[in-house]
# Entry
Amino acid sequence: IKINKSITRVVSSAMKITIFFGVYCSALIYGVYGFQTLPRKYSFLNSALKIRSPAQRIVVSASRTEEVVIPQNFRLPVLFLGTGLFFEQLPILKYTLGPLTLALALLFFVQSFRIRFVCDDKAFSLKESKLWTRSDELGDTGQNIVVGGDNSWTYSSFVNYETFPKGWIDLPQGPILIYFKETQTDKTKWSEGPGQSANSPDALAKGAIPGQVHFFPALCDAKALISEWEKRGAKKISST
# Structure
Protein backbone atom coordinates (compact mmCIF):
# COMPACT_ATOMS: atom_id res chain seq x y z
CA ILE A 1 0.00 0.00 0.00
CA LYS A 2 2.84 2.35 0.88
CA ILE A 3 4.51 1.60 -2.45
CA ASN A 4 1.29 2.34 -4.33
CA LYS A 5 0.93 5.66 -2.51
CA SER A 6 4.52 6.58 -3.35
CA ILE A 7 4.00 5.73 -7.01
CA THR A 8 0.80 7.81 -7.06
CA ARG A 9 2.60 10.80 -5.59
CA VAL A 10 5.47 10.50 -8.09
CA VAL A 11 3.08 10.23 -11.05
CA SER A 12 1.01 13.17 -9.75
CA SER A 13 4.11 15.34 -9.30
CA ALA A 14 5.41 14.36 -12.75
CA MET A 15 2.09 15.32 -14.35
CA LYS A 16 2.04 18.69 -12.58
CA ILE A 17 5.63 19.42 -13.63
CA THR A 18 4.83 18.46 -17.22
CA ILE A 19 1.80 20.75 -17.30
CA PHE A 20 3.80 23.55 -15.66
CA PHE A 21 6.61 23.40 -18.23
CA GLY A 22 4.13 23.03 -21.08
CA VAL A 23 2.34 26.22 -20.04
CA TYR A 24 5.58 28.14 -19.65
CA CYS A 25 6.84 26.94 -23.04
CA SER A 26 3.56 28.18 -24.53
CA ALA A 27 4.08 31.53 -22.83
CA LEU A 28 7.61 31.70 -24.24
CA ILE A 29 6.38 30.92 -27.76
CA TYR A 30 3.72 33.63 -27.50
CA GLY A 31 6.34 36.05 -26.20
CA VAL A 32 9.03 35.39 -28.81
CA TYR A 33 6.87 34.96 -31.91
CA GLY A 34 3.87 37.04 -30.91
CA PHE A 35 1.36 34.50 -32.22
CA GLN A 36 -2.14 35.93 -32.45
CA THR A 37 -3.70 33.12 -34.44
CA LEU A 38 -3.52 29.36 -34.56
CA PRO A 39 -1.63 27.52 -37.36
CA ARG A 40 -3.28 27.37 -40.78
CA LYS A 41 -4.53 23.78 -40.35
CA TYR A 42 -6.52 24.97 -37.31
CA SER A 43 -7.85 28.08 -39.04
CA PHE A 44 -11.43 26.96 -38.43
CA LEU A 45 -10.80 27.49 -34.71
CA ASN A 46 -9.61 31.04 -35.38
CA SER A 47 -13.00 31.74 -36.92
CA ALA A 48 -14.95 29.93 -34.20
CA LEU A 49 -13.11 31.72 -31.39
CA LYS A 50 -12.98 35.00 -33.33
CA ILE A 51 -9.21 35.39 -32.91
CA ARG A 52 -8.09 38.41 -34.94
CA SER A 53 -4.65 39.10 -36.44
CA PRO A 54 -3.41 41.66 -37.19
CA ALA A 55 -5.47 44.72 -36.15
CA GLN A 56 -8.65 44.47 -38.23
CA ARG A 57 -9.91 47.62 -39.93
CA ILE A 58 -13.65 47.79 -40.56
CA VAL A 59 -15.25 50.59 -42.61
CA VAL A 60 -18.49 51.58 -40.90
CA SER A 61 -19.69 54.83 -42.50
CA ALA A 62 -18.61 57.93 -44.38
CA SER A 63 -18.63 60.05 -41.22
CA ARG A 64 -16.72 57.49 -39.16
CA THR A 65 -14.28 56.04 -41.65
CA GLU A 66 -13.19 52.89 -39.88
CA GLU A 67 -12.97 50.92 -36.68
CA VAL A 68 -9.69 49.25 -35.78
CA VAL A 69 -10.15 46.13 -33.67
CA ILE A 70 -6.97 45.51 -31.69
CA PRO A 71 -6.00 41.80 -31.81
CA GLN A 72 -6.27 39.67 -28.70
CA ASN A 73 -3.16 38.69 -26.76
CA PHE A 74 -3.13 35.57 -24.59
CA ARG A 75 0.28 36.09 -22.99
CA LEU A 76 -1.15 37.45 -19.72
CA PRO A 77 -3.61 34.61 -18.99
CA VAL A 78 -0.98 32.03 -19.99
CA LEU A 79 1.56 33.72 -17.71
CA PHE A 80 -0.89 33.72 -14.78
CA LEU A 81 -1.81 30.10 -15.46
CA GLY A 82 1.83 29.01 -15.39
CA THR A 83 2.51 31.06 -12.26
CA GLY A 84 -0.55 29.60 -10.55
CA LEU A 85 0.54 26.04 -11.37
CA PHE A 86 3.97 26.86 -9.95
CA PHE A 87 2.44 28.21 -6.73
CA GLU A 88 0.41 25.00 -6.45
CA GLN A 89 3.68 23.08 -5.97
CA LEU A 90 4.66 25.10 -2.87
CA PRO A 91 3.35 24.01 0.57
CA ILE A 92 1.92 27.33 1.78
CA LEU A 93 1.20 29.14 -1.49
CA LYS A 94 -0.86 26.22 -2.83
CA TYR A 95 -3.65 27.24 -0.43
CA THR A 96 -3.34 31.02 -0.86
CA LEU A 97 -1.77 32.62 -3.93
CA GLY A 98 -2.11 29.45 -6.01
CA PRO A 99 -5.93 29.35 -6.21
CA LEU A 100 -6.12 33.15 -6.52
CA THR A 101 -3.66 33.26 -9.43
CA LEU A 102 -5.43 30.39 -11.21
CA ALA A 103 -8.78 32.14 -10.75
CA LEU A 104 -7.34 35.31 -12.32
CA ALA A 105 -5.93 33.23 -15.20
CA LEU A 106 -9.40 31.81 -15.87
CA LEU A 107 -10.95 35.28 -15.72
CA PHE A 108 -8.33 36.67 -18.12
CA PHE A 109 -8.90 33.81 -20.58
CA VAL A 110 -12.65 34.45 -20.58
CA GLN A 111 -12.22 38.21 -20.96
CA SER A 112 -9.65 37.75 -23.75
CA PHE A 113 -12.32 36.02 -25.83
CA ARG A 114 -15.16 38.31 -24.71
CA ILE A 115 -13.77 41.88 -24.76
CA ARG A 116 -12.51 43.75 -27.83
CA PHE A 117 -10.50 46.97 -27.76
CA VAL A 118 -11.71 49.18 -30.60
CA CYS A 119 -10.42 52.48 -31.97
CA ASP A 120 -12.42 54.56 -34.45
CA ASP A 121 -11.74 58.07 -35.75
CA LYS A 122 -13.03 59.79 -32.62
CA ALA A 123 -12.97 57.46 -29.63
CA PHE A 124 -11.52 54.39 -27.93
CA SER A 125 -14.14 51.84 -26.86
CA LEU A 126 -14.54 48.51 -25.14
CA LYS A 127 -16.91 46.21 -27.01
CA GLU A 128 -18.18 42.68 -26.55
CA SER A 129 -17.60 39.84 -28.98
CA LYS A 130 -20.59 37.61 -29.69
CA LEU A 131 -18.46 34.49 -29.24
CA TRP A 132 -21.22 31.90 -29.42
CA THR A 133 -22.83 33.25 -32.60
CA ARG A 134 -21.69 33.33 -36.20
CA SER A 135 -21.94 37.11 -36.31
CA ASP A 136 -18.75 39.21 -36.42
CA GLU A 137 -20.63 42.21 -35.04
CA LEU A 138 -19.40 43.64 -31.77
CA GLY A 139 -21.92 44.52 -29.08
CA ASP A 140 -22.12 47.09 -26.32
CA THR A 141 -20.44 46.24 -23.00
CA GLY A 142 -22.99 48.29 -21.06
CA GLN A 143 -22.27 50.85 -18.36
CA ASN A 144 -18.84 51.19 -16.78
CA ILE A 145 -18.99 49.24 -13.51
CA VAL A 146 -16.81 51.75 -11.62
CA VAL A 147 -17.99 55.24 -12.59
CA GLY A 148 -20.96 54.57 -14.87
CA GLY A 149 -21.38 55.86 -18.41
CA ASP A 150 -20.51 54.19 -21.71
CA ASN A 151 -17.20 52.39 -22.11
CA SER A 152 -16.16 54.82 -24.84
CA TRP A 153 -13.84 57.82 -24.48
CA THR A 154 -12.84 60.43 -27.05
CA TYR A 155 -9.13 60.88 -27.75
CA SER A 156 -9.48 64.61 -27.14
CA SER A 157 -10.36 63.85 -23.50
CA PHE A 158 -7.16 61.86 -22.89
CA VAL A 159 -4.59 63.59 -20.66
CA ASN A 160 -2.22 60.65 -20.15
CA TYR A 161 -1.69 56.94 -20.79
CA GLU A 162 0.94 54.35 -19.88
CA THR A 163 1.65 50.62 -19.61
CA PHE A 164 2.77 48.90 -16.40
CA PRO A 165 5.30 47.82 -15.45
CA LYS A 166 6.98 50.54 -17.49
CA GLY A 167 9.31 49.15 -20.15
CA TRP A 168 7.63 45.73 -20.31
CA ILE A 169 5.88 46.65 -23.54
CA ASP A 170 9.13 45.87 -25.39
CA LEU A 171 9.74 42.59 -23.53
CA PRO A 172 8.49 39.16 -24.71
CA GLN A 173 5.85 38.78 -21.96
CA GLY A 174 4.47 42.29 -22.50
CA PRO A 175 2.92 44.58 -19.87
CA ILE A 176 0.40 43.49 -17.24
CA LEU A 177 -1.72 46.65 -17.09
CA ILE A 178 -2.70 49.44 -19.48
CA TYR A 179 -3.64 52.80 -17.98
CA PHE A 180 -5.20 55.98 -19.27
CA LYS A 181 -6.63 59.14 -17.75
CA GLU A 182 -9.42 61.22 -19.28
CA THR A 183 -11.60 64.23 -18.55
CA GLN A 184 -14.78 63.03 -20.27
CA THR A 185 -16.18 61.43 -17.09
CA ASP A 186 -18.06 63.67 -14.67
CA LYS A 187 -15.63 65.49 -12.35
CA THR A 188 -17.48 64.24 -9.28
CA LYS A 189 -16.20 60.73 -10.06
CA TRP A 190 -12.52 61.60 -10.51
CA SER A 191 -11.48 60.98 -6.90
CA GLU A 192 -13.13 57.57 -6.59
CA GLY A 193 -10.94 54.48 -6.26
CA PRO A 194 -7.39 54.93 -7.59
CA GLY A 195 -8.33 58.45 -8.69
CA GLN A 196 -8.00 59.60 -5.08
CA SER A 197 -4.21 59.24 -5.18
CA ALA A 198 -3.88 60.05 -8.90
CA ASN A 199 -5.59 63.42 -8.34
CA SER A 200 -4.11 64.19 -4.91
CA PRO A 201 -2.33 67.51 -4.29
CA ASP A 202 1.02 65.68 -4.22
CA ALA A 203 0.37 64.02 -7.59
CA LEU A 204 -0.76 67.31 -9.17
CA ALA A 205 2.33 69.06 -7.77
CA LYS A 206 4.50 66.46 -9.53
CA GLY A 207 2.91 67.24 -12.90
CA ALA A 208 -0.18 65.04 -12.98
CA ILE A 209 -3.25 66.38 -14.77
CA PRO A 210 -6.68 65.95 -13.11
CA GLY A 211 -8.96 63.37 -14.65
CA GLN A 212 -10.63 59.98 -14.35
CA VAL A 213 -8.23 57.03 -14.04
CA HIS A 214 -8.78 53.72 -15.85
CA PHE A 215 -6.77 50.50 -15.50
CA PHE A 216 -7.34 47.27 -17.38
CA PRO A 217 -5.31 44.07 -17.89
CA ALA A 218 -3.30 43.90 -21.11
CA LEU A 219 -5.53 41.36 -22.88
CA CYS A 220 -4.85 42.87 -26.30
CA ASP A 221 -1.75 43.73 -28.32
CA ALA A 222 -0.53 46.62 -26.16
CA LYS A 223 1.87 47.92 -28.82
CA ALA A 224 -0.89 48.07 -31.43
CA LEU A 225 -3.24 49.86 -29.03
CA ILE A 226 -0.66 52.45 -27.98
CA SER A 227 0.21 52.98 -31.65
CA GLU A 228 -3.45 53.72 -32.46
CA TRP A 229 -3.69 56.17 -29.56
CA GLU A 230 -0.55 57.95 -30.77
CA LYS A 231 -1.80 58.17 -34.37
CA ARG A 232 -5.15 59.56 -33.24
CA GLY A 233 -3.70 62.31 -31.08
CA ALA A 234 -4.32 61.00 -27.55
CA LYS A 235 -2.27 63.14 -25.15
CA LYS A 236 0.50 61.69 -23.00
CA ILE A 237 2.59 63.30 -20.28
CA SER A 238 6.26 63.13 -21.25
CA SER A 239 8.35 60.98 -18.89
CA THR A 240 11.46 63.05 -19.50
Notes: The first strand starts at residue 56 and ends at 59. DSSP finds seven helices and nine strands in the chain.
